[in-house]
Every structure is written in structure tokens, then in C-alpha cells.
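Subject: DUF2852 domain-containing protein structure
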Amino acid sequence: MNTDIAPRPSAFDRIGAALAGIRDWLDERGKGAWIVAMILGFVACWPLGLAILGYMIWSKRMFSCRHRHHHQHRRGFGRDFAQPTGNYAFDAYREETLKRLEDEHREFLDFLQKLREAKDKAEFDQFMAGRNQPPATQN
């Protein structure tokens, strides 16, 4: 048996790759291309149009003004948001500014967490103080 031959992709793999290519092609052209594809899907076969509509809603392509691929999403402010421009002074300035913004963002989130903890502690202390009080008597 020859083990040097790569396994042939299944039909589902080929269909998935084709659909991913169509999705990427439509994403490059924007929301209008998705709407045209949906309308053509309804004209050709209404379940196909309904499937495209469902996918557009599920993937948020229907309501976003510009869809970004899942591999383009960045955490935080995204240091690798833009490629180097070739202007070293600007690239260094941008890098420093983004680092400063990330630090300020992290400090602000820490501050909010401390505020929440202080509020929770104050509410708990108030509950405990009220719990130790005898119930008010009614006349």
C-alpha cells in the first residue's frame, strides 16, 4: 500500500470549500452583493433564498454596514491593525500611541472593577446592618 498519496477530500469538504469561496467573494463585494444573491436565490428556488437570508441574519451580514471575516477580528485595540507604512517615525508613534491606549483601557477596566466591588461591599454591609436590626413594630 502506497502511503505517499494524500487522502482525497470528501464531497462535504469540497462543498464546504466552494461555499467558503463564494462567501469570501460576496464579502469582498459588500452587502449589496449579498442582497442580490439572496434575491436571485428566491427567484431560482425559494428555499435557497430563504437559506441565504437566514445565513445573512445569523452571521450579522444583514445588519452590519461592513462585515469583517472572522480571522480579521482583533482583541483590544489591535497592534497589527495596519501594516507598517515604511515611515519609521510614524510607525513608532502609532505603536507607542496604541500601547498607551491599551494601558489606559486596562487601567479603566481595573477602575470599573474596583467600583463594582466597592458597590457590592457597600450593599452587602447595608444588608448585614439591616439584618441585625430588630423588625419594626407596627401600631
